[in-house]
Amino acid sequence: MEELTARNALRSEREKTLARINDLRAEFEAIVAGSRDMNTDDEHDPEGSTIAFDRAQTHALLNEAEAYLAELDRACARLVDGSYSVCEVCGNEIGSERLTARPAARTCIGCATSNRSA
Ligand SMILES: [Zn+2]
Q1: CA of 89 relative to ligand 1 center, distance in Å
Q2: pLDDT (tens digit, 9 = 90+) per residue, 33-46?
Q3: Residue 50: which of 36, 30, 35 has the closest Cα?
Q4: What is the pTM assigned to this prediction?
């Protein structure tokens, strides 16, 4: 994959992820503020447990998005030091198709597949 293409892909992923983090943070704060106003009992009130679920769900998505952002930052660093597109496990080239689909990928498709089944 061309370095410029990779850099652009990482940049656009980063922008999307940052926007997503902002949305999720706003959503999370709204849920927290809403549950405070209602003063619900999370365990016994059906409405309260829905809020607790939404809050946990949004928090999980937020963590996921932040982890992905960190992955993208590491990918940017690898782009700079020249190890981008080199599989971390076997040292082979990561296919450009895979990098287009997952710009933060650290392993080639072969290693990713064998890790999943192991
Ligand atoms: Zn590999």
Answers
A1: 5
A2: 987 776 655 556 66
A3: 35
A4: 0.81
